[in-house]
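Practice problem: predict the structure.
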Amino acid sequence: MSKALETAQKPTDQVAVLMVINARQQEEISHLKRQLEWFRRHLFGQKSERRNPDLYSLQLAFSDLGGEGNTPPPAPDTQTVAAHSRNKPAKPTPPAEDGLFFDESKLPVETITLPCKEAEGLDPAQYEIVSEKVSHRLAQRPASYVILKYVRPVIKLKETQTLVCAPAPQGVLDNSRADVSFLAGMVVDKFLYHQPLYRQHQRLGSNGVTVSRPWLTQLTHAALELLRPHSPGSTGIHSHLSGHHHG
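Answer:
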């Protein structure tokens, strides 16, 4: 088109050539605007704009635009990866109620021997200790934990050949390994000092105590139930705390 402009001698011919050039440029600009609008709708507004299939026919081919860099980039190389599976981590099994749930090398154990009521006032020659029954409870001292080891000798009365043993110490929760001091400390740490149960669980593990986090949650709910108002004469956590010698 520039050659046609150069060969035109008369001004009228040059004007005619310029008008043709301008018309073609206007047409190309119109096509470019339509293509830009198509890209705006389909690349940046898929969720808010409705697709218009008629716009596909209005696109200009990249080869029609001229210039360099019109060749589409080659498709990236692909690699097939073999499928694999992962083992599901096993959940830790909580320790049995009658087994050791702590590390004796990390946690102090305080032994408490409970006398047998049937042997009170008897001469040692009148009975013999044949075995022992041992139970453990997790207790708490200020800023520390301790295991209370209750030893209850099983004795045999020689006169009647009867085996007797002191009963297990009664706690605020039936058949629980948690001492009342541990319950009180756990609740105070959680609600007064904002110490979450998972952090208390981590602290127990650092001190050699192996218990589950759901166990701490169950103890918390049980302790809160004990704090409900009681009728006159009933026992609750307050009476146990006031008369407890290990708090």
